Amino acid sequence: MKFNTGSAMKASVSVSQDQLIDWLCRLVRIKRVSGNEHEAVEFFKQEFSRFGFQFKQSGRNLLAWRGSGKKTLLFNTHTDTVPANKGWTLDPHDPLRKDGRVHGLGANDAGGCLVGMFGALLSADFDESRATLMFAPTCEEEVAGDGFEKFVHEIPHFDACVTGEPTNCEICIAERGMFKLDLVTRGKSAHAARPWQGVNAAYLAARDILKIEELYEGFTERDELLGRTTLAVVMLNGGVARNVIPSEVKWTVDGRTIPQLDNEATIARVEKALSEHTKIEQKKVRFGVWKRDAKDELVQCACKAAPKSKVGAFGGVSDAWWNQKAQGLILGPGLSEQSHAADEWIEEKEVMRGYEIYRGIAEKFLGQ
After folding, report:
1. What would the pLDDT profile of 27-68 be if each residue is shown by its tens digit?
2. Are residues 206 and 229 in the same domain?
3. Mean pLDDT of 153-160
């Protein structure tokens, strides 16, 4: 799909904090777990139409824009949420405004980014004959799917991309790579009353799990922004009955990597450390290390728009990885620790702050 440039909207619109919070509360009311973002798509289509934007749709992804100039900045964040966990004491889809906060599923991840970027699209002041500002709310960031990782190939050229994630409005220019390993350790079953007749896969797996811990603790490679590569055993399952020596244990390792010890090199070290009883059944490598230069024009514009924000690394993984060619950074209102948390919340003033920074980045980048 190819998108035409140009915009039906020719003047910026002022955006208040009340307007941002109204949009945010309306989004919280929408059930938009990954794969079910249809109502969120309709919400943005209606708002785009109301304000006179041209926009295009591909699946559950949207692109709206202002301007027809060559220099182009893209704002991208995701409309989907994870399911509400069992720890919620509030109705996840009934937004609660209390003590200067908005509680609700997706309010923090990434509702604040969504409304802030939309507000910046509406209000940023720049010469539309010389530059273009685009906003892409996309689906399925929380899972591998049909979101930005596919939609990015349908978007016209852009010089830079701001990826919206809750960073407390810090300017993030790097994130670690990520892989998952599904492993199986095999022994020999026997009756629990005669353990000597079998080979206990639980003991074999335990020894290899401790090797993973030892391997991780021995990593000496460091990155100035990202720290070091980490390994963690995150799932463990084995045994068929309480009186049977287990013949098989399945377990999963999560790896987060840095340029100095990337996915491929780390997996090779894991394979070397394992005993002959344990095999890797499946390797899931979705994200590599993503890193940008602090001297890039986009980063410098962000530093001017948010002079109190620090330049650092994002603690998780995001759709920034799919921006492989253009300048980029990750930034958004909200706290990372509130993402996926029970009774999730974001501060209203933080939503406004995020919007103001997004607007400032757009005006500074597109005005140069």
Report:
1. 999 999 999 999 999 999 999 999 999 999 999 999 999 999
2. yes
3. 97
| Residue 2 domain-assigned (yes or no) | no
The 10s digit of each residue's pLDDT in 66-105 is 999 999 999 999 999 999 999 999 999 999 999 999 999 9
Same domain for 308 and 181: no
Q: Are residues 202 and 275 in the same domain?
A: yes
Task: For residue 346, list its beta bridge partners.
Answer: 102
Q: Domain tally for the chain?
A: 2
Q: d(Cα 252, Cα 44) in Å, to the nearest integer?
A: 38
What CATH number corresponds to the domain at position 268? 3.30.70.360
Minimal CA–CA distance to 52: which of 13, 26, 79, 23?
13
Q: Are residues 140 and 214 in the same domain?
A: no
> In one letter, which amino acid is 351?
V
Query: Which CATH number does the domain housing residue 333 bear?
Result: 3.40.630.10
Yes or no: say if 190 and 136 are a contact pair by the CB < 8 Å rule: no
250-259 pLDDT tens trace? 999 999 999 9
Does 304 reside within a domain? Answer: yes
* Model confidence pLDDT, tens digit, residues 110-145: 999 999 999 999 999 999 999 999 999 999 999 988
End-to-end CA distance of the chain: 30
**SS3 state of residue 78:** strand
Whether the model pTM is above 0.70: yes
Domain containing 150 equals 17-175+289-367
Tell the burial category of 58 from Cβ atoms under 10 Å away from its Cβ (0-12, 13-18, 19+): middle
- CA 130 from centroid of its chain's CA atoms: 31
